[in-house]
Amino acid sequence: MPLLFIECFLEKANIRLLTITGKLRLVIDTGIGNIAKNCRGSSVLNTKKTAVIGLGSMGWGAALSLLKAGFVVRGCDVRSEVLTRFAESGGTPCTTPASAAEDADVILVYVVNSKQVEDVLFGQSGALETARPSTTFLLCATMAPSATTAIAEKLEAAGMFVIDAPVSGGHVRALSGEITVMASGTPEAFDKASAVLDAISAKVFRLGDRPGAGSQVKMINQLLAGVHIAATAEAMTLAAKAGIDLKTLYDVICVSAGSSWMFENRGEHIVSGDYTPRSAVNIFVKDLGIVTSEAGKAGAVTPLAAAALDLFEEASQAGFGLEDDAAVAKILAAKSGASLPGVKD
Ligand SMILES: NC(=O)C1=CN([C@@H]2O[C@H](COP(=O)(O)OP(=O)(O)OC[C@H]3O[C@@H](n4cnc5c(N)ncnc54)[C@H](O)[C@@H]3O)[C@@H](O)[C@H]2O)C=CC1
Ligand SMILES: O=C(O)C(=O)[C@@H](O)CO
Predict the structure, then answer these.
(1) Is the pLDDT of residue 266 over 70?
(2) Where is the 6-phosphogluconate dehydrogenase NADP-binding domain (predicted)?
(3) pLDDT by residue (tens digit) across 163-196?
């Protein structure tokens, strides 16, 4: 069918075709709210109002992806400068989780750890104070599976739907709406959140019907991610010590068998000497802490994760906790007497 004919037909029927972050979407304006359907085959949903709690490296990207996809987005953060930037980007800034949660159909929780998640949900001015029953919560922070399960049970007891939805892909993929989601929850929860998941991700893995299963898989990803960052830092430090040009090394390894997603991503930060946090050292103190403690409970040995955790803890104690996690290289460089770009000897 000629494209012009399709366009005229869609215009008459009040249907707009939008391409957002490379995904083709149909938006049908019913006058009472949009019904969006992703043309790559996901379900139709009329969810319109969303809230993102925690507008940091990952939550910011998710919030912007939702705005681009046509959702109304309330965003909450404790940092006022972030709220100002969010308002400038078209979002509705909120100073408390309770005000962000009012009226929301789906709420995405993107703070750092389980303690913060509990605070923003169940604490004073927390989301549960105002969220309507049957609101769907996406728990996107990386937490121990047991913590995720306990939080999900508390939300469900209050009449909410929950998806355990930890994410992967870093700040850049969050911004482009292309993260991977390691998700678990009831089919009903997935139905309610499918348009939101489509807007923020390139791939959603459904890993089970109960919250906790997603966090278990994410924990394994974090074992690999943490070890690969530490290995990248070690490789770069040895290369620097051996007098190899780091940019040349980076180009060679990226197309060789020693590479990894983390080598490509964090290796670039080390080569350019840029430790602006896209994911902070302290995140891996948390995540590898989860890995080693859960492994201990399960009776599994994780010597590589333990060695990597030691390095991240050392980096944190040396004052690099809020820098990009590639700063673990600074510890190895100092011990090796090696010079890294942008790092004072
Ligand atoms: N940065 C990354 O590349 C990735 C991070 N993750 C996970 O995603 C989660 C978020 O990580 P990031 O975005 O890197 O952290 P972040 O530190 O950049 O962002 C967290 C945000 O939450 C806000 N916040 C903290 N307490 C709050 C409260 N009570 N009320 C409102 N806002 C509050 C902070 O001000 C901050 O803006 C973590 O669980 C992390 O492990 C997962 C995949 C990748
Ligand atoms: O993307 C992921 O997966 C990660 O966990 C890291 O980027 C760091 O948090």
Answers:
(1) yes
(2) 50-208
(3) 999 999 999 999 999 999 999 999 999 999 999 9
343 exposed, middle or buried (CB, 10 Å; 0-12, 13-18, 19+)?
middle
pLDDT at residue 16 tops 60: no
pTM of the model: 0.89
Q: What angle do CA 318, 321, 322 make, to 5 degrees?
A: 135
β-bridge partners, 106: 50, 136
- Complex-level ipTM: 0.98
Of residues 168, 102, 103, 171, the one with CA closest to residue 141? 168
- Residue ranges and CATH numbers for the domains of the chain are 46-211 (3.40.50.720), 219-336 (1.10.1040.10)
* Non-local CB neighbours of 37 within 8 Å, separated by 6+ positions: 25, 26, 28, 43, 44
Largest CA distance in the chain: 70
Q: What are the backbone dihedrals phi and psi of residue 183, each rounded to the nearest 5 degrees, phi first?
A: -110, 150
d(CA 284, CA 195): 30
Helix (H) or strand (E) holding 203: strand 201-206
Phi, psi torsion values for 274, nearest 5 degrees = -110, 110
Convert the pLDDT of each residue in 31-75 to its tens digit.
222 333 333 333 334 558 999 999 999 999 999 999 999 999 999
Contact between residue 235 and residue 330 where contact means Cβ atoms under 8 Å apart: no
| Ligand 1 site, residue 283, Cβ cutoff 6 A | yes
Residue 167 alpha carbon to ligand 2 centre in Å: 8
Please name the residue whose Cα sits nearest to atom 2 of ligand 2.
Answer: 168
CA distances for 83 relative to 86, 240, 329, angstroms: 5, 41, 33
The dihedral through the CA atoms of 69, 41, 179, 138 has a sign that is: positive
Q: Whose CA is nearest to atom 3 of ligand 2?
A: 168
How many CB atoms neighbour CB 261 within 10 A? 14
Q: Of 229, 268, 279, 284, which is best to mutate to test ligand 2, by the most ligand atoms within 8 angstroms of its C-beta?
A: 279
